[in-house]
Automatic annotation (TrEMBL):
<dbReference type="InterPro" id="IPR001680">
    <property type="entry name" value="WD40_rpt"/>
</dbReference>
<feature type="repeat" description="WD">
    <location>
        <begin position="225"/>
        <end position="258"/>
    </location>
</feature>
<feature type="region of interest" description="Disordered">
    <location>
        <begin position="267"/>
        <end position="344"/>
    </location>
</feature>
<feature type="compositionally biased region" description="Acidic residues">
    <location>
        <begin position="267"/>
        <end position="313"/>
    </location>
</feature>
<keyword id="KW-0853">WD repeat</keyword>
<dbReference type="InterPro" id="IPR050505">
    <property type="entry name" value="WDR55/POC1"/>
</dbReference>
<dbReference type="InterPro" id="IPR019775">
    <property type="entry name" value="WD40_repeat_CS"/>
</dbReference>
<dbReference type="Pfam" id="PF24796">
    <property type="entry name" value="WDR55"/>
</dbReference>
<comment type="similarity">
    <text>Belongs to the WD repeat WDR55 family.</text>
</comment>
<keyword id="KW-0677">Repeat</keyword>
<feature type="compositionally biased region" description="Basic residues">
    <location>
        <begin position="317"/>
        <end position="330"/>
    </location>
</feature>
<dbReference type="InterPro" id="IPR036322">
    <property type="entry name" value="WD40_repeat_dom_sf"/>
</dbReference>
<dbReference type="InterPro" id="IPR015943">
    <property type="entry name" value="WD40/YVTN_repeat-like_dom_sf"/>
</dbReference>
<protein>
    <recommendedName>
        <fullName>WD repeat-containing protein JIP5</fullName>
    </recommendedName>
</protein>
Amino acid sequence: LHPSNDIVATGMINGRIQCHRYGLEGHEHLWTTRAFKKSCRGVSFTPDGFGIYGISRDRSIQLLDTETGKSIRVRETTHEAPINSLLVIDENIMASGDDQGVIKANMTFSKDHRTLLAVGGDGYLSTWDIRKPNVSAMSDQMEDELLSIALVKNGKKAVVGTQDGVLTLWSWGDWGDYNDRIMGHPNSIDAICKLDEDTICTGSSDGIIRLVSILPNQFHGVLGDHGEDMPIENLKLSHDKKYLVSSGHDDKLQFWDVAHLFQEEEEAAAAAQEEDLDENTEEKEEQSQEPEAESKEDADEDDDDGWGTDSDDEKEKKKRKKTQKKMKAEKKKDIRTTAFFADM
């Protein structure tokens, strides 16, 4: 998916790369080019969106012009084995992996640590400092294929999908073994897409896209279904966070509406901000009333006869109003979430 426009590029098994413009009013075919002699195994836009990298089973990497589809640069026989994975890190650096495990099956990158993380069918999670050629750290053998990976919790946690359908959670810097896991997928987890720092969606070989929160670990429902026996291989979030795009063995790109999820987050944040403003206003009002109350305290002392004051009643009313606001906000959020999943 293009980093700033409604454009999608796809690599085909016949070696062609296609580019389309997508939208609610329909899709527009922009161009098709025969980029490789053998199957194209992956495509990715450059960070500025002006170029598209493609990788192939013929061991070559090619850079195409996004507007025209014409070849800008080609690197032949980059690997000794067919290339199967691609990650564009920045304008000058990209990483690729091949069938012999040079790098791995799926990769992600931490900008803060300048570290590449890779997982693969050999059951290892490995990390590389991109300024050095050697492995920085490697996990123990997991006795399971590691198929997908994403960073969450502001880079403090890595989530890894496995062949057995388990999501494993790893703490940054502690790469020997995972420290938590999430059970519940009946089949392999072939793709992970981060929606925000606390939420991911997973694509499984059973054809279902699931929404999962991380710490607390919880399944929230199904976002989409490709159908039985239609494994999902890729998941990407559009630049404007309106669509989740999935692809699999059914030779289709499917667009799923996820804008509701981000709208709920924005509304919750706005409600929290409004609540903070209300609290600050109430505190200022109470502070402005304190001097007046103190000046009248001696005069009213004989009249109180041990009974509560009006100011105490006002405080209780304000507390009740705040509690009612919170209950209404929570109830509204629950209703919206339920309605969204029901609609899907």
